[in-house]
From TrEMBL:
This is SRPBCC domain-containing protein. InterPro entries: ASHA1/2-like_C (IPR013538), START-like_dom_sf (IPR023393). Residues 11-141 form the Activator of Hsp90 ATPase homologue 1/2-like C-terminal domain. Belongs to the AHA1 family. Coiled coil: none annotated. It comes from Flavobacterium rhamnosiphilum.
Length: 146
C-alpha cells in the first residue's frame, strides 16, 4: 500500500473549512469529483461507523478512528459495501482493510492548510493523484465563498 499526501491552502478559518468538509450538502459537492452523488451516512462521532456511498449503494464501510473538531479527522476503512450491505472481508479487500484516511487542519492568520493523507492500493494511486486535487480545489472554492 502507498500513502498519498495532499495539501491545499484555503483563505478561510479552519472552522469554516471543517464545516465544508463534513456538512452533508457541501460534502456531496466536493466529493462529486470522485463519484457524482457520493454521500456519507454516520452520526459523525469518534468510534462510530461511517458508510461512504454512491447513489447505487456501493461504497466503503469505515469507522471514525479519531476526531478532534476543527482540527483532525481519521477514518479507518474496513470493507466494501455492495447494494447498501456491508460485505465480509475477502481476499480482494484484505489488501486494503485497515487503510487510513486523515484530514488535518492548521490555521495561521485566517489561512487554513488542509493536509490529507490516505493509504491506497497501487491500482488506484494514479486515479487519486489526479482526482483528489480536483476535490480539494472544489473544497477551497466552497470554503472561500461568502
Amino acid at each position: 500500500m502507498t500513502t498519498l499526501e495532499f495539501k491545499i491552502e484555503i483563505n478561510a478559518p479552519k472552522e469554516k473549512v471543517w464545516d465544508v468538509l463534513w456538512n452533508e450538502e457541501t460534502y456531496k459537492q466536493w466529493t462529486s469529483v470522485f463519484c457524482e452523488g457520493t454521500y456519507a451516512v454516520s452520526d459523525w462521532k469518534e468510534g462510530s461507523k461511517i458508510h461512504f456511498l454512491s447513489p447505487n449503494g456501493d461504497g466503503m464501510n469505515s469507522v471514525i478512528y479519531k476526531k478532534n473538531d476543527n482540527e483532525y479527522m481519521a477514518f479507518k476503512h474496513l470493507s466494501e459495501i455492495k447494494n447498501f450491505k456491508e460485505m465480509p472481508v475477502d481476499d480482494a479487500t484484505q489488501e486494503w482493510t485497515g487503510a487510513m484516511e486523515t484530514y488535518r487542519l492548521t490555521e495561521n492568520n485566517g489561512l487554513t492548510v488542509l493536509a490529507v493523507k490516505m493509504d491506497s492500493v497501487e491500482k488506484y494511486v494514479d486515479y487519486f493523484k489526479t482526482t483528489f486535487p480536483k476535490g480539494l480545489d472544489m473544497l477551497k472554492k466552497l470554503s472561500e465563498e461568502k
